[in-house]
Amino acid sequence: xxxxxxxxxxxxxxxxxxxxxxxxxxxxxxxxxxxxxxxxxxxxxxxxxxxxxxx
Amino acid sequence: xxxxxxxxxxxxxxxxxxxxxxxxxxxxxxxxxxxxxxxxxxxxxxxxxxxxxxxxxxxxxxxxxxxxxxxxxxxxxxxxxxxxxxxxxxxxxxxxxxxxxxxxxxxxxxxxxxxxxxxxxxxxxxxxxxxxxxxxxxxxxxxxxxxxxxxxxxxxxxxxxxxxxxxxxxxxxxxxxxxxxxxxxxxxxxxxxxxxxxxxxxxxx
Amino acid sequence: xxxxxxxxxxxxxxxxxxxxxxxxxxxxxxxxxxxxxxxxxxxxxxxxxxxxxxxxxxxxxxxxxxxxxxxxxxxxxxxxxxxxxxxxxxxxxxxxxxxxxxxxxxxxxxxxxxxxxxxxxxxxxxxxxxxxxxxxxxxxxxxxxxxxxxxxxxxxxxxxxxxxxxxxxxxxxxxxxxxxxxxxxxxxxxxxxxxxxxxxxxxxxxxxxxxxxxxxxxxxxxxxxxxxxxxxxxxxxxxxxxxxxxxxxxxxxxxxxxxxxxxxxxxxxxxxxxxxxxxxxxxxxxxxxxxxxxxxxxxxxxxxxxxxxxxxxxxxxxxxxxxxxxxxxxxxxxxxxxxxxxxxxxxxxxxxxxxxxxxxxxxxxxxxxxxxxxxxxxxxxxxxxxxxxxxxxxxxxxxxxxxxxxxxxxxxxxxxxxxxxxx
Lengths: 55, 205, 423
Description:
The structure holds 3 protein chains of 3 kinds.
Chain A: H1 2-22
Chain B: E1 26-28, E2 34-39, E3 42-49, E4 65-67, E5 70-81, E6 86-94, E7 99-105, E8 108-115, E9 132-135, E10 138-157, E11 166-173, E12 178-184, E13 189-197, E14 202-204
Antiparallel strand pairs in B: 1-2, 1-10, 2-3, 4-5, 4-14, 5-6, 5-10, 6-7, 7-8, 8-13, 9-10, 10-11, 11-12, 12-13
Chain C: E1 9-12, E2 19-22, E3 30-32, E4 38-41, E5 47-51, E6 67-70, E7 73-85, E8 90-98, E9 102-109, E10 112-119, E11 134-137, E12 140-159, E13 168-176, E14 179-186, E15 189-198, H1 200-206, H2 229-255, E16 259-266, H3 268-273, E17 275-276, E18 280-282, E19 289-294, E20 300-310, E21 314-329, E22 332-338, E23 340-345, E24 351-363, E25 375-381, H4 387-415
Antiparallel strand pairs in C: 1-2, 3-4, 3-12, 4-5, 6-7, 7-8, 7-12, 8-9, 9-10, 10-15, 11-12, 12-13, 13-14, 14-15, 16-25, 17-24, 18-24, 19-23, 19-25, 20-21, 20-24, 21-22
């Protein structure tokens, strides 16, 4: 009885994993359509380069 | 051995006695508790009443029991009174037809078989509890030395014994649970070898 | 012959005249009065052999006089002995009597109940005191637990010998849960007994004890491991899904890395100015694309803007950082960051695309010029990201194994009862 419940739960988890993998949920890099202000790295003390205008 | 029909009935009551056992030499009439012995195709009254007080017991007459791969039915019981208390000797017949004695003393149950001793055992008076004796090619220890009185009978017995009869006996124990009992009667000395059985392995069926 | 009631005997204590009921059979040798602590010899007309004053009866849910059925046989509690070992752990052993099945013991050890009887079944070979050595007896294989000495600290009621406080017994225990085989050494002789662990609920029910048994905080050596039914169910379900998840993860590993569309490298001079890659063709707009950037930096960082463009325009851009620092501190090696990074993306339509890579970097913590290491760029199509199945695998494996881990821990506690504490 309890085993059946767990089988249903794990089955649902497997289906969820399949769906998420097939649709690439949460995987893709957030795209930045326009060039954004570059923040520079954590390690740099000064901003290198400047603003770039997008097209 | 077919017994004459009238000779088979209790001389006191006329109640029907047992008919079949080739072993039976002695019978206690179930109605009047009179001991009878079978001799020469006639049932003779031994004239002694034997009444057994009832105590809870693992075995019962007329019921079948199982121990491991044996099935058997008790046919008689002899009660012995000894210094510390009482015990019962049950005569049981296995399904195979073989008869055995089972000794029951509270939870201590042993199946015994008569054996011939090659060497004659020391006489009763010389046996000491705790001493070692050489018998059956082994060193055995005397664990009990006592006198037992027959306190009652029930059923059909393979031998003749009367309530009130006493005999001396000695129990010896050996390695691996071996028990040897030597019984000293007026005219003979008998020995039997025993094996302990676990009461929880003994069940009615 | 019908079952008859066992005869009961009542006597007056020869010391204090308290009424004492004798419920045992003729093997009883002594009765210790619960009121005045006098030990009376039943074979010597109840002569007072010893007297123990100022006693406190150790507490238990079991009491003298109680009756209960164990394995279908009714037993009466007729006596009790409290034992202690050399670590001062104490427990009670109650002497039981049945007119048909004789004498037995019921031990109460911190809420664990063990039903013990004398047996004549000898071990198949001499028993060694070596822990975990094994022998066979009574159709079981027993493993030796320990050899130890116990002494009596309290007696009451009827016993089959004249027991005295301070008497010592040397024992050896061997287990095959729920059974425990004990060898008792007295001089040159040995006596054997087998104990069986009884579940507390069963004992309470057998002796008509109304309340729930108290919680057990220790694991008794003979205590059988009873798995939690939920863990069993979870394990049985996990048994099917864990291999399934594993197969999928392995498949994704071998077949999910995708087809390489672009592979190239860019020098720092190039990426500072901005470098355009060779074109690459995406065959299917729904395929997941992976961009890998890597550079063997050491104690340096670099930021990259990558713009994906088709022939007409920019589609989108993304920013990624690579930084890797390492060193020694106090003799130990440390490292931080990674020499590679990865981003997943999709394009709106199949066709030709190029990448425009611009970067900056520095060395150490103040550098403003990128380290002179090339950047490797790879684009792959048809990538399968297995992370969700990896999570599923971790969960289903845990579900499958949890019950065995709990069992392993229980067995470790069973055997730790007598590990030597060296400190």
